[in-house]
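Hi R.,

Here's the chain you asked about this morning:
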Amino acid sequence: MTTHPTLIGGGWQEAPAEAATFSARNPVTGEALPDRYPVSTWDQIESALRAAHEAREALRGQRPEVVAGFLEAYADAIESHAAALVELANLETGLPREPRLTTTELPRTTGQLRQAAAAARDRSWRRATLDTRANIRSVLGPLDGPVVVFGPNNFPYAFNGVSGGDFAAAIAAGNPVIAKANPGHPGTTRLLAELALSALQATSAPPALVQMVYHLQPEDGLRLVSHPLVGATAFTGSRRAGMALKAAADGAGKPIYLEMSSINPVFILPGALEERAAAIARDLFGSCTLGVGQFCTKPGVAVLLDDDQAGAFVAEVAELMASARTGVLLGERTPSECAAAVAALQAHGAEIVTGGVPGEGPGYRFANTLLRVSGDRFLLDAGALQTEVFGPVALLVLARTPEQMAAIARSLEGNLTACLYTHTQGADDGLYERLEPILRQKAGRLLNDKMPTGVAVTPAMNHGGPFPATGHPGFTAVGIPAAMLRFAALHCYDNVRPHRLPPELRNTNPTGAMWRLIDGEWTQSDA
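And here is the predicted structure, written out as tokens:
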């Protein structure tokens, strides 16, 4: 039985004899996989921090082409090893090879790596600002330490700590990364780290630009995010773990960017329901069960008026849920966590329409589940009835009146998304205009007549939102170059002689194409 080494300081380091180990499990069968992975000791973590600090120093003064070249070489390496990556991720997560892993997620991952490389080369993301009259100039630059990235279990490539969006944004902004693998797919992360190291070795980037540990003791995670050598942390996971890390980081004055819980409410207005109820039912069912309900943008709550149309709609969604095959969940504890969350919703007045029990078959499963609750009861226990369920579970809230729909909207916590389904010929315009200003403040991304599960990797995307969806409503985890701004510091130069300024702040545009704010005007021209 092999225990794999950890990537520290530009090479693979064997774990100390006293280090604990763990193995991944195949969610389809529930069986443990043979390879073992170490839980890093604090000595190893400190070694990684020191190596990252040295890499940070080595990056000073290097041109953006260094990190851009690495990101592109890494994307090429991932594509050339796509078959092996797909087999490993399928074994560790149960996610289907096609289309999920091969056609959808792997190209998204290499695409965002290349987008990050292009942004690094372009340099406009740095927002160079020149006040030539006062001779004060400022530019965004790297942090003073590495970025620690905690990856989730539901995207083995696109949000992986060693290849995902947080990783790409941090590297493109000029920061070393210490990636913490998710224990659900350590083998996939190991192979990605091997490819990253080969790309580093093929370029002039510092060898410790990318480091990776498989697992940490909880107390060491808290020490890591608050360590003096850390520049910032990015975390995707549960609210409980995220808030513990945030408390530790905040106590040390260290930035931390969290993506946590979100129920992504969908408001289905009466005109839309009258016009196309069956189509909306299919949309809701498909979005709730996509990825077996394990997307952070899954619609967990849908709100509609309680009338005759609503009764037929509830029955339609329930039939779709009940007749669909039960999917495989990612983790061993996920079925019991789904059951506990459903029980909590029931305890506060929700009624099960269908499902609510473990799914049939081997491995990790939970039945597709639909619950309903009145708008009156929802408003009595709004906090408890917004419990996020990481699985194929949705709650329908039946409001008495349009006024109650607005009250429900006001009672919502912060979310990544909010959606309004409306009549195509304008019959719902009045109610839309009442609800939209409320929901606009409750979510990072507002959708109309479209379910929220798709997150396009585009510069205009916001994959963020008010607490508790994230720890800060002003930032996004998806979308280059906006995602890079989380991992940057503002560097100001006052009366510094021209030859001592960074190239981005000299009078001559360093690329000829970089956008800069010069004396109040955005321009690509020289100062």
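One quick note: The chain is about 35% helix and 20% strand.

Cheers,
M.
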